[in-house]
TrEMBL record:
GO biological process: carbohydrate biosynthetic process; dermatan sulfate proteoglycan metabolic process
Gene: Chst8_1
Native species: Erithacus rubecula (European robin)
Protein name: Carbohydrate sulfotransferase
Annotated GO CC locations: Golgi membrane
Subcellular location: Golgi apparatus membrane
EC number(s) from the headed UniProt entry: 2.8.2.-
InterPro entries: Carb_sulfotrans_8-10, Sulfotransferase
């Protein structure tokens, strides 16, 4: 398609005909991650200015959805899964299994291309981190986070998320 190789990266920069052509010609893969794990990762990477996790969460909640960072914006608003029919949704924590299947479906040799992924260790670590960091939050912050990510929690199977409780 003529404009496929432009510098524009957001679909909103294209007209409806171009968007339809692009979406119809690509295999669409969406990588999703528990929103609370995304917050932990963002905090640990130092992307917030706060010194404590609780202060960082308050910063996220105060910024809201429209003034916040892509690092913590709800996935539903970033990736529009209700408008775009993704061919694959890959869950963080099951990468080895799901990427292997995806590469096989794409006709690639999955096993030789995959890095060594230890999903069970990652899941255990994030479970432990979640317990520690969730305990730092006030009841009000927990309630506000659950509300902030309500559409992500409804759209994706994050059944073990601390925000689902």
């Amino acid at each position: 398609y003529p404009r496929l190789h432009t510098k524009e990266t957001r679909l909103s920069k294209f007209n409806q005909t171009e968007i339809k052509a692009m979406l119809g010609s690509y295999t669409k893969v969406l990588f999703v991650r528990d929103p609370f794990h995304r917050l932990i990762s963002t905090f640990l990477q130092g992307m917030g200015i706060s010194s404590s996790f609780s202060s960082f969460i308050q910063e996220v909640l105060d910024s809201g959805m429209h003034n916040g960072s892509v690092a913590w914006e709800p996935l539903v608003s970033l990736c529009r899964p209700c408008l775009i029919q993704y061919d694959y949704v890959v869950m963080f924590g099951f990468l080895r299994q799901e990427l292997g299947h995806l590469l096989h479906r794409a006709g690639l040799l999955g096993g030789s291309l995959l890095p060594e992924l230890t999903d069970s260790q990652v899941q255990w670590t994030y479970r432990w981190l979640s317990e520690q960091m969730f305990s730092e939050l006030s009841a009000q912050q927990k309630k506000q986070l659950t509300h902030f990510y309500r559409w992500d929690l409804a759209a994706f199977p994050f059944s073990n998320s601390f925000l689902s409780d």
